Amino acid sequence: ATIVGPASLGSFVTGADVQMLSVGENPWGVLASIANRVGVDVWDDGAGKWRITPISNETGPVTRAWFSTGPAGNLRASSSGRSRKDFANVVLLTYEYFTDSGPQKVQGVASLSAGRLGTEIAGRRVHAVTSKWRGSAADATREAEVILSRRLSMGRRFSLESTHAMWWLRPGDPVQVQLPLGAPERHIISRIDWDLPDGREGARLVTSW
After folding, report:
1. Sign, Cα dihedral of 1, 9, 172, 135
2. Are the C-beta atoms of 127 and 90 separated by less than 8 Å?
3. Distance between CA atoms of 109 and 127, rounded to whole angstroms?
4. CB neighbour class for 64 (10 Å; exposed up to 12, middle 13-18, buried from 19)
5. Which of 20, 74, 91, 179 is the most buried (most CB within 10 A)?
6. In the chain, what is the straight-line distance between the N-terminal and C-terminal CA atoms, in Å?
7. CA-CA distances (angstroms) from residue 118 to 72, 155, 173, 206?
């Protein structure tokens, strides 16, 4: 597979800090850890290339596609759900590694207190992560902030199936969805599946609250 992404990422991947895979360990865990450490999204474009792009946490003013129901709409099916299972508004990240001086432990914390997803309203939901990377407390805090941004979006998920495939859409693209009830909602695409024989498209969206 080919990795396509910012040239600056190479200086980190080939740097002094290297993670070795244990026997039977899923390499995706290490890849996801690297993505959190440098603040990027990594995804397979289905054509033999792994894409590395900046994290998309904001829908912004640009809309890459519109989805709606009704006779003139392009939605075949849709579903949404709320869950606290993977949601977190506090992230505690711990680096645990060994040096010549013995075992080392460095921690970083990121949290959100205000707003309806913050600890003041939603309650305290802690996600603890242990990593084999080496780094300072500042490094751990920055990585915890990236993980927090991902966990905050997991409180609500939205999936839809369109009547035809929109081949230009990619993970991270902002879209707008209009259902029969309620105001239009803006979302960020986290996953896309295409049905090549039927020309249909399924997308998993992350709500921008």
Report:
1. positive
2. yes
3. 10
4. middle
5. 91
6. 35
7. 39, 12, 25, 18
Which of 48, 68, 28, 38 lies closest to 163, judged by CA?
Answer: 68
Model's pTM, two decimal places? 0.70
Contact 173, 189 (CB under 8 A): yes
How wide is the angle at C-alpha 206 spanned by C-alphas 138 and 160, nearest 5°? 160
Amino acid letter for position 154: M
CB atoms < 10 A from the CB of 202, how many? 16
* Collapsed DSSP state (helix, strand, coil) of residue 145: helix
On the CB side of 111, CA atoms within 13 Å amount to 15
Q: How would you list the strands of the sheet with 49-54, edge to edge?
A: 2-4, 49-54, 40-44
Q: Looking at the DSSP assignment, which residues form a beta bridge with residue 157?
A: 81, 206
